[in-house]
Every structure is written in C-alpha cells, then in structure tokens.
Amino acid sequence: MSPTSRLYDALNDFLRQCDIQWQDARHLQTLCWMIIGMIGSQNVHLNGFGVYVRSRAQMAQSHQRRFRRWLSNRRINVASAHHALIGQALSNWQTQRLYLSLDTTVVWNCFCIVWVAVVYRGRTVPVAWKVVAQSSSTVRLWTIQRVLRQAQRLMPEGVAIVLLADRGFADGKLMKYLRENLGWHFRIRIKRSFQFQHQGQWRQVSSVQLQPGQAYFTPAVSVGRTKPYDNVYLAFAHDKLSRENWTIVSDEPTNLQTFAQYRLRFQVEESFLDLKSNGFNLEASRLRDEVALSQLCGVIALTMLFLVLQGGQVVASGKRRQVDAHWKRGMSYLKLGWNWIRLAITHQWKIHVYQFLSCSPDPQPAIASRRQHDDSLKREFTVLSRIPAS
C-alpha cells in the first residue's frame, strides 16, 4: 500500500462517518483526492492536485477539469457533509459555554465570505459560511441570520453559546435576533459614534473619556438612539499596552472578564491567515464562480476539521515534539495535524480517524512570543464606580 493510499483510506473513513448519502461514489472519491491535494501541495490551486491523484487519467488538464466540474456540480452538497461532521465533533462538548466568532473576509475584491467558527485552542474551526458576490465586507442582516441559523442547528444541547463579533456587526436588530430567536449571549465591540442612554440621557460612546488603565462598567442601558435596544450592558476600558479604547456591548452584566472573553474573537484572524497566505492560499484558486467558491470553502472546512482533530491527538498522545521544534507549543493544532500527516506519509504509518473535539482546557497553550505573553500578564485596570465626566 502506498503512503497516499493510507491517507485516502483515512479520509474515506472520516467522510463516511456522516449520514450523508452521496449520489455517486465518484463524488466522494474526488473529494478525498482534493483534500489529499490540499494537504500535499499546501495550496488550493487545482492545477497542483493532479500529482497526488491515482487514477487512469494521464494528463494534468484532465485532473483540473475533473475538480472544476466537481466544484460546479450543484447536486453535490459538501456543506451538508461538513455540518454532519462538525456537529459530531461538538456533540461531546460538556463545558458550560462555547464561543463562536462571527467575521467576514473579502477575496479578489469580488466575493465576501461570512464565516462563523468555534473558538478552539488558539484558532477557530469553521461551522458555517456564506459566499456573497460583493466587494464590501459589510453584509445584510438576513445573510448573517441565515449563516447563524445554520450554525445553531449544529450546536450541542445544553451548552450556552456566546457570539463574539467586531464593530461591523454592532446592530440592535442582530442583538435582538441573537437573544430572542437563537437564545445566545453576545459580546460585540461597538464604534465610538454609537449612542447609549444612561440615567435618562443619551450620550455618545466617545464622550466617555478614560485615562490609560481605567475601566468602567455600566448598569443596564439602551443602545442605538434611532431604534433603541434596551437591557444591555457596556464595558469601557483604555488599555495601556495597546493605547486603545475598548467598548464592548453584552447581554449579561459586564466586568473585566468581558474583555478576556471578547479577546477570543481575534483567533478568527489567525484562521483567516491560515485560509489565505499562511495556509491554504485560497486566492490561488482563481475561481470566479460563487457556487464553486462556496464548495471550495466547504472542502477547506473539512480539511481544517480533519487536521485539527489530528493535531489534538498529537498533543494528547505526547508526540508534539516530533513535529514541532519549539520547547513549548509554537504551532496551531491545524499546523500540528498538517505536519503529522506529512510525517505519517513519509514513514508510511497508519493514519487514524478521530471524531470529537475535546472540550477540556488546552494542555499546552501556544506561546508565539514570550515578550507579548509577559506583557499580557501586566495588564491592570482601575475600575471606576461612576461614569467619568466628558
């Protein structure tokens, strides 16, 4: 058995875990070869996949045409396969809370991808997405709601969901939808032009001027003067290290822990880096079709899930140092799994299939920079008891 065949068998077993009935066995076969091509070439350029495929086709153009037809085939629903597998991976989640990050990214100034992902040990694992043909990163509310509904169906029962989002999603209608329709909590950063009602008086966020190292937490207030949404809480802080003002709106009473929770949102930025220049290089695909690009995002999401599951097992089994040269973990679970698969192919080891994401605390948190890690421990805030004067 060749090394590639071992990876093919593992992926075939992994993808058959879900209850999706493939209309044609060749659809599943092509999907396995596409994932193998991504892992091997560290790229999503379809021209580079052919050298990893074992088939009767001899011409590189034949492989490229096969993959393009697969991505443009509307009968293939790769999102359903991913939803089944990510739902299974989260089914054993037993902690009280699960954090989701909502964000958008633009490719080629042609398409905007709305991305909802689970915050997991320094990165995010994609849950649901939507490709919109537009150059702006601002999308309509109904598009966001559609993606969130997809994510809701995959969440484990009995677990509180907290959505983290940046300033572009600060909308009272979205907050109402999250709390009343989905039953989720939220931590959303708002702009300094936002208005809130405090003690019967409307004020702009920018009117709250804090000194470096100060923080203030409001009682229940209303936000948005034109269409007010009430019974939310604000957290203000001026960070000494970054010299930035932070304002977070939450559906629950706020405290210093609110900023630590919101900080988890930045892990999606690292995942977007993996999606683009530091990993799959999405823009190298050169796809200009909305359906094909959405299908490709599904293939990438499946590959990410497979590699993160592998990386988690590498750390759990104490084999991290075989693929990570750092004394302390310096790689993401995605990169650990990626390196482990390549090592297994080199040594012709059997590649195992894993099903569940562990909800236990990260046994080896990544420390990319010792200086930044030490600086983060020096953050101290003085909590004010009343709102500061303008």
Automatic annotation (TrEMBL):
Q: InterPro entries, per this entry?
A: RNaseH-like_sf, Transposase_11
- What are the GO MF terms of this UniProt record? DNA binding; transposase activity
Pfam families in the cross-refs: DDE_Tnp_1
Tell me the GO BP annotations in alphabetical order.
DNA transposition
What Gene3D superfamilies does this protein's entry cite?
Answer: Transposase Inhibitor Protein From Tn5, Chain A, domain 1
Q: Where is the Transposase IS4-like domain?
A: 117-303
List the protein's name.
Transposase
